[in-house]
Design brief:
The chain is mainly alpha-helical. It has helices spanning 7-32, 37-58, 66-90, 96-103, 106-118, 125-142, 155-175, 184-205, 219-243, 249-252, 255-269, 277-294, 297-311. It has one domain (7-311). It is built from 13 helices and no strands. Helix 1 crosses helix 11, helix 5 crosses helix 7 (155-175) and helix 11 packs antiparallel against helix 12 (277-294). The chain is globular and about 55 Å long.
Length: 313
Amino acid sequence: MEIRPASWKILLAFAIIYFVWGSTYLSIRVGVREVPPFLLAGLRFVLAGLALYGWMRIKGIAHPSRREWAGICLQGTLIFLIDYGCVFWAEQRVPSGIAAVVLATIAIFITLLEVAILRTQSLTVRLSLALLAGLCGVAVLMNRSFSFGEAPIDRAGALALLVAAVCWSVATILTRRLTLPASKPMSAAAQMLAGGIQLLVLAALTGEFKGFRIQAVSWTAWFALLYLIVAGSIVAFTAYIWLLHYESPTKVGTYAYVNPVVAVLVGYFVGGETIGLRTVFGSVLVLVSVITISTMPKMVAKTAVELAEARAE
């Protein structure tokens, strides 16, 4: 019989996935001020992917098969090239807290896909109200006419975040249908590596290497990248996988609505970002929607674990 770890270890693991994943949004914003977005994202995921892949091989986990690599590359494209590419690019224009709140709509878009396309979810009154609240929250955050005194959000950045959320939702749905490695850490490592390579190729194609001078990058930006690699992509994901052995997916999945709150607060207290009535009102609507959806038994069973595994943040 497996012995349950001490309660302080459980609490520490929750603190890691709550606060580390929540703070990565500000780290991205700090990094993209000095390093081109696709290059920064590519470096993060190639280095994190190599480290985690190497650790899995040391532990005796087999290389993915040729068929598994096909699914890995597709997920690498959807999650890391498109999704994270959009997020890193958008955070040049949009505050990190707002970015985190918009990405919380992933649960909303997954539900819409299941209702409208897959027909695996019934549209109940409760679910309809939750979806409406979430969509209204996004509208409040992005509408320039009702800014409540806050500076308007950059439209291109907001659109990129919505593309990221939709793409992430599609990738999460596909996770159930693709042939991927049985080892979740190996699957995450391979996806990070495949997506990171694609991001570096995109950085080269868009001219991000031209004129980029490593010596001109401050230690602050390098620390942000190191934090994203070590804390965000390795430590937090490891804590998440460990937690799943001892806690229910429902409880572990609470990171989905804690992270945006942490991101907004970290952005305000550390990053100097503003929190106005629009941010508060829009965020509350989105989070009420996400919490409602996430606590519906069918949605928790199908998406809570897969979403975090796909994210591998």
